[in-house]
Amino acid sequence: MITKKTIPVDQAVGMVLPHDITEIVKDEFKGRAFKKGHIIQPRDVEHLRRLGKENIYVLELGPGEIHENEAAALLAEALAGEGTQYSDDVVEGKITIKAACDGLLKINREALLELNLLGEVMCATLHDNTPVKRGEQVAATRLIPLVGERRLVDQAVRIAGGGEKIIRVLPLKKVRAGLVITGSEVFYGRIEDKFEKVLRTKLAKLGSEVGIVRFAPDDPQQIAAEIQACLDSGAELIVTSGGMSVDPDDVTRLGIREAGAEDMVYGSPVLPGAMFLVSRIGQVPVLGLPACGMFHSITVLDLLLPRILAGETIGRRELADMGHGGLCRNCKKCQYPVCPFGK
Ligand SMILES: Nc1nc2c(c(=O)[nH]1)N[C@H]1C(S)=C(S)[C@@H](COP(=O)(O)OP(=O)(O)OC[C@H]3O[C@@H](n4cnc5c(N)ncnc54)[C@H](O)[C@@H]3O)O[C@H]1N2
Ligand code: MOO
């Protein structure tokens, strides 16, 4: 049984505060007015009253009980995995977990659910597979009550401790990519290529670069030969553009197969990106990007590239799992990744 004694503030001078006390002034301030452990001074009494505190707690923890600050420290330690960091400074009972490097946020969603089902502990995170920057807040955790049952926190720690940690940030491999721009209209100079620049920019944003660019008409043999030229030059990732849909001249898929691709999965439940293809030649991922990749600012490629650079293998299941949230809203001003697309 948790025992909490209350005492009127004007009788509390000289006593130690058992928890942080928050002040909120609309549009101006939200933060800690008094820190846990603060010894109440005579001048504090009026301030505490302005915060609506007529009484404060004096805590007596039993052997089976735990204070919010200790619980937050135990939870953060159990939850935070590779590529994350946090400060031991517990603010308002909560510890914030941040990315220690640029990379891809990975959340073990099943374990997170199990932990949050316990009820009196919580952990809130950004979405699984969100690209994050070093120093960015990715999660926060705390005990819900001021004093809780130690048993419950121990249980949460056990859930978080089973196998990989629940919250991780994986660094992205920096690769030299090869681009194969397909389409007879581009190859024969009927129109100017618009794909190379788009793909260079996208790869550069993730810390990778384009090492080689080859062009091929709508001919499977020639597409295969240019993919091979990329491999010969040491490309660690190959992206082809265009020729992925239903016209007789859309033969990029055949070219990729002809080049020796394995584990080929064609079609994804993502818009834009329905005609996307993922495969590999040896250890080199080969991605077939439909022409929407040049038109829309964010497509299936932006959702998958960070995962591929983080070392993930993408197959039918991983693609199928993207259907929920896979519909882009085509906002006038794109806010990705701060949006529901791909979540
Ligand atoms: N009846 C159907 N029509 C379409 C389907 C479908 O399933 N049934 N799929 C749609 C989807 S989804 C996409 S995405 C687009 C484009 O698919 P493709 O990858 O086959 O694109 P292409 O046919 O090669 O080209 C379309 C368009 O884009 C221009 N393009 C292509 N590459 C370049 C480049 N490097 N630089 C500049 N412009 C390029 C090309 O000239 C065409 O105008 O198909 C939907 N239609
Ligand atoms: O491959 Mo298309 O994106 O669905 O426009």
UniProtKB/TrEMBL annotation:
One of its GO terms (biological process) is Mo-molybdopterin cofactor biosynthetic process. SUPFAM superfamilies: Molybdenum cofactor biosynthesis proteins. It catalyses: adenylyl-molybdopterin + molybdate = Mo-molybdopterin + AMP + H(+). Residues 178-310 form the MoaB/Mog domain. Pathway: Cofactor biosynthesis; molybdopterin biosynthesis. Its EC number is 2.10.1.1. This is Molybdopterin molybdenumtransferase. The lineage of its organism: Bacteria, Pseudomonadati, Thermodesulfobacteriota, Desulfobulbia, Desulfobulbales. Its cofactor is Mg(2+). Keywords: Magnesium, Metal-binding, Molybdenum, Molybdenum cofactor biosynthesis, Transferase. The keyword Magnesium applies. One of its GO terms (molecular function) is molybdopterin molybdotransferase activity. The keyword Transcription does not apply. Catalyzes the insertion of molybdate into adenylated molybdopterin with the concomitant release of AMP. GO terms for cellular component: cytosol. It comes from Desulfolithobacter dissulfuricans. InterPro entries: MoaB/Mog-like_dom_sf, MoaB/Mog_dom, MoeA-like.
